[in-house]
Design a protein that fits this description.
598 residues, alpha/beta, DNA polymerase, domain 1, Beta Polymerase, domain 2, Beta Polymerase, domain 3, seven-stranded parallel beta sheet, five-stranded mixed beta sheet, 12% strand, globular
Length: 598
């Protein structure tokens, strides 16, 4: 079983226990285990073969290890099944309704057999809750609003959509001009998560902080035209709902608390809990306002995140690492990675032109990439199996190679690699002949069909593609589409080991619908010594800009510039690629120069 499946079962067990009225410690143990299992790169199925290794994981004791063993053996968990006999699975959706906690959800089921969102909405619409103790007319109104919100959205948004909304909100807040010192996004957006639940902003007013200055800022914000509903309005926080279903929380904070607030509201919750525990052990207390001494309450840090970390005897931990997956231990040991940055990227290794399903020509893509400061790019139009994308057969591929060679000379200032995104067929063979593959500067392979193969068959399919001596990069290796399609199933450890042994790089596809490989898989690739590239998969010049999402995902995967080969200068990048049959890494550049002159 994949980690995500095990994590889902444990998470649902936690939610059902909460509905059932279990003590907080009991259901939180399942939540913590689920969060850990989903985030770590190692396969739990493999770790579980050695009980000692499994129980060495934080939060996984002997009892939880037994629960995990049961899930692996049966595909389910007895306690979850028992609870689902007592409560319908749809009650988990009811629990997600804003303002309707586990006690009320359990009450509605027990007294009204309301086990779905629609059941609860019906009770509210028919005014059957207004005379019920603990509910009332206002609760009915809140339930109906919450149901509408539930229907509008799954509650998660891809990072590019969330970022676009955040930029619009921040730009509006800043139109207040001199009254605003800064507007900073926090939350999961700042940590670079692939999907975002809601937006958090920390606003610092210019001049003296006072309730009057806070109220003036809120008055301005609440005039933002897209606001659909104001959810909360307190002394220093407002929350509102946008038409797309996204909730926005804005907090106005005094400058001396900026660092503490930014740290707290960036999260993750688990990272914050660990920092607060560390602070207490050192004689401090840490909250969203400041780091203070336990005895006197004197503030010792708060203006910046860095000074808070320093007071806790830790180096600054980048937001992308704050997921409680070993970052504090690494910081203590002085082993935090020097994370890759967008400026480190020297080339983009997957993009499409009008030859297949792209919107711009070779020359237009090359000029746009050159303007971004890239030294080289690979033009990777689809091969013939991808008929819906007008894939190229052998004859058209050879013609495209010539066009790319000519474009390099006409555009100037950037090196163009004649490449192809070659489809991996069902049997693992590549979609172009070896004779044509030999003439390409770079061979990128990927899967676009038969994604529902059994785990063993999919594993063998990918391994067969890696056996082809011309394969150099495995693109979007899991085939997942964020919020739309699960990854296909295969033995990633075996595939990564084969990539390492053969010198094949794996791709972090920066397109926000993919972000494939995801953060945990990139960390696994690094641990297993696999080369990584970050590519945009751009189908237009404007999409070249999404490289930032791939870099941020790589940062969440603990990658440094040295882990990503398209941070290398052109000649060193060529040398880092898997050598073609009959050549060596040293003579590849000379071979390409001869092919260009010919």
């Amino acid at each position: 079983m994949e980690n995500r499946e095990i994590a889902r079962i444990l998470h649902e067990t936690a939610e059902l226990l909460e509905i059932d009225g279990a003590i907080i410690g009991r259901y939180r143990s399942y939540e913590k285990a689920a969060e850990l299992i989903y985030s770590i790169p190692e396969r739990i199925e493999e770790l579980a073969k050695d009980r000692k290794k499994l129980t060495e994981l934080p939060g996984i004791g002997d009892n939880m290890a037994e629960h995990i063993d049961e899930i692996l053996k049966t595909g389910d968990y007895g306690l979850r099944k028992k609870l689902l006999k007592k409560y319908p699975a749809t009650l988990l959706d009811v629990l997600s309704l804003q303002g309707l906690g586990p006690k009320k959800a359990a009450f509605l089921w027990k007294n009204f057999k309301a086990g779905t969102v629609e059941d609860v909405a019906k009770l509210a619409r028919e005014q059957k809750l207004r005379d019920v103790p603990g509910f009332g007319e206002k609760t009915e109104e809140n339930i109906l609003r919450a149901v509408e919100f539930f229907k509008k959205s799954t509650g998660r948004f891809r990072i590019n959509a969330a970022e676009a909304t955040a930029e619009q909100v921040a730009a509006y807040i800043q139109t207040l001009g001199k009254q605003i010192a800064s507007v900073t996004p926090a939350g999961s957006l700042r940590r670079g998560k692939e999907t975002i639940g809601d937006l958090d902003f920390i606003v610092i007013p210019a001049g003296k902080y006072s309730q009057k200055s806070v109220d003036a800022i809120f008055e301005h914000i609440l005039k933002y035209p897209p606001i659909e509903e104001v959810l909360a309005h307190g002394e220093n926080k407002i929350s509102f709902l946008l038409p797309n279903g996204m909730q926005v929380d804005v907090r106005v904070i005094p400058p001396e608390s900026y660092g503490a607030a930014l740290l707290y509201f960036t999260g993750s919750k688990e990272h914050n809990v660990a920092l607060r525990g560390r602070a207490n052990a050192m004689g401090y207390t840490l909250n969203e306002y400041a780091l203070t001494t336990l005895k006197s309450g004197k503030t010792v840090a708060g203006k910046t995140e860095a000074e808070i970390y320093a007071k806790l005897d830790l180096p600054y931990i980048e937001p992308e690492l704050r997921e409680m997956t070993g970052e504090i231990e690494a910081a203590e040991a002085g082993k935090l990675p020097k994370l890759i940055t967008l400026d480190d990227i020297r080339g983009d290794l997957q993009m499409h032109t009008t030859a297949s399903d792209g919107k711009n020509s070779i020359e237009e893509m090359a000029e746009a990439a050159r303007d971004l400061g890239y030294e080289y790019i690979a033009l990777t139009d689809h091969s013939k199996a991808v008929t819906v994308a007008n894939g190229l057969d052998e004859k058209r591929t050879l013609a495209q190679i010539k066009k790319i060679r000519a474009a390099e000379k006409s555009v100037g200032g950037i090196r163009l690699l004649a490449s192809s995104e070659v489809d991996i067929l069902k049997n693992g063979a590549l979609d172009l002949s070896d004779e044509v593959l030999a003439q390409l500067d770079l061979v990128v392979v990927s899967i676009h069909s038969y994604m529902n193969l059994e785990r063993a068959a999919m594993t063998e399919r990918i391994l067969a593609a890696l056996e082809n001596p011309y394969t150099q990069i495995l693109a979007h290796p899991t085939g997942r589409l964020v919020l739309r399609r699960d990854p296909y199933d295969y033995d990633m450890e075996r595939v990564f080991d084969a990539c390492r042994e053969r010198g094949v790089a794996v791709e972090c596809n920066a397109y926000p619908d993919r972000l494939d490989l995801r953060d945990a898989h990139l960390r696994l690739a690094k641990q297993r010594g696999v080369k990584v590239v970050i590519s945009t998969d751009a189908h237009s010049t404007s999409q070249l800009q999404v490289m930032k999402y791939g870099v941020q995902t790589a940062r969440r995967g603990w990658l440094e510039a040295r882990d990503v080969i398209n941070t290398l200068p052109y000649e060193k990048f060529l040398a880092a690629l898997r050598a073609k049959p009959g050549s060596t890494k040293k003579d590849r550049s000379a071979s390409r120069a001869r092919s260009q002159s010919g």
